[in-house]
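Run log // design_07
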């Protein structure tokens, strides 16, 4: 299919819910993608943080292909070895007690919300179900996760939204505390607000918030949908903040390109959700879990994570010296670039023309490269980015 045909057919048959860049990607390997005309791109997006190992990683591809040839799906009414092995791997790596598998970040966050509310109502009474999140946060696009999202722009068009959420300012403990009531069961945070503009939380704020929640048996939920699975240079970002959340959600990079969501919890929450209280048809799919195991077998290695941290530091150092860049922020290989005098959307579109794929986050350019990207590919991508910034 050529690009013009693809564009016309897409507009005819698909709901127009995305502003797509003007290219039809057809294949890829590692950090490089190729379009229908054979043009090659350096990919600094990894599918919005999904292709943690890049396109078609050999180990991941072998695992997925082998499992697809054995059993592509089975109901959760039966035991599934890939799901069980993945659960064991995640809990062993994190020290968490139990995990529930869904199909997306929003589903993982929905599970976390249900888990927190059930714990609150079981322990302190049926009204103990309120959750505080941070302003500028993003937790998903279901009605409930939109309600949890602390951005007013998302709280329109789909009324009535789910009740029971309040919002505090990031890095302002007094603001969060003022949003807490006698019926607050949990506080939910992203350690780096990705869709909100790649805004890391301050370590001092996180530690004080953790202590506040611990003293009052308020659950701390870590939304690690975008920050997890090595993205920030540790398996999960919370490891760099000196806290242990009660609930951790993961998705994106965990599946290596296939849809998955995971909600992990500590021991005291392990039995809160019993049979019939939560479920999913496709969650824990054996092919997806086989792929996720292949991802963790590589990403969880200390040397791999160290390399991610080093590449992230290298990217930030190079970007900070670049003409047209006001400032750079982020953690690991989750990077936001504040531009001096250009619009992020226009720059992202121009990058496609130059053979570079980037993302935006509000007014910023956002980079989420594959964790396996080489320094040569980083340098090539940065050269193309610099050329766009220097263009009149």
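design_07 sequence
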């Amino acid at each position: 299919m050529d690009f013009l045909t693809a564009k016309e057919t897409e507009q005819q048959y698909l709901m127009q819910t995305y502003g797509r860049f003007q290219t039809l990607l057809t294949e890829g390997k590692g950090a490089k993608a190729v379009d229908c005309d054979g043009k090659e791109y350096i990919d600094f997006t990894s599918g919005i943080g999904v292709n943690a190992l890049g396109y078609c990683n050999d180990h991941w591809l072998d695992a997925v292909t082998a499992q697809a040839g054995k059993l592509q799906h089975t109901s959760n009414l039966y035991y599934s070895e890939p799901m069980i092995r993945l659960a064991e791997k995640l809990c062993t790596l994190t020290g968490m007690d139990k995990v529930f598998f869904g199909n997306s970040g929003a589903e993982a966050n929905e599970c976390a919300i249900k888990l927190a509310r059930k714990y609150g109502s079981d322990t302190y009474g049926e009204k103990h179900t309120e959750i505080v999140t941070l302003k500028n946060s993003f937790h998903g696009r279901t009605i409930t996760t939109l309600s949890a999202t602390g951005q007013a722009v998302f709280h329109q068009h789909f009324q009535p939204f789910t009740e029971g959420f309040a919002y505090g300012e990031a890095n302002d403990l007094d603001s969060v505390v003022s949003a807490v009531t006698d019926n607050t069961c949990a506080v939910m945070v992203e350690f780096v607000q990705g869709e909100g503009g790649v805004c890391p939380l301050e370590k001092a704020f996180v530690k004080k918030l953790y202590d506040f929640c611990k003293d009052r048996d308020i659950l701390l939920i870590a939304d690690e949908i975008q920050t997890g699975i090595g993205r920030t240079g540790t398996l999960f970002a919370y490891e760099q903040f000196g806290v242990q959340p009660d609930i951790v959600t993961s998705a994106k990079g965990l599946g290596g390109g296939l849809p998955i969501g995971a909600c992990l919890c500590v021991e005291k929450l392990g039995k809160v959700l019993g049979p019939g209280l939560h479920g999913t048809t496709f969650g824990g799919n054996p092919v997806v879990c086989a792929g996720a195991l292949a991802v963790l077998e590589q990403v969880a290695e200390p040397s791999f994570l160290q390399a991610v941290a080093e590449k992230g530091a290298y990217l930030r150092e190079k970007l900070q010296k670049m003409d047209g860049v006001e400032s750079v922020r982020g953690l690991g290989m989750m990077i936001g670039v504040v531009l001096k005098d250009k619009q992020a959307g226009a720059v992202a579109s121009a990058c496609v023309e130059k053979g570079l794929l980037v993302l935006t986050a509000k007014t910023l350019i956002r980079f989420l490269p594959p964790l396996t990207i080489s320094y040569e590919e980083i340098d090539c991508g940065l050269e193309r980015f610099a050329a766009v910034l220097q263009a009149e």
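The chain has twelve helices and 17 strands.
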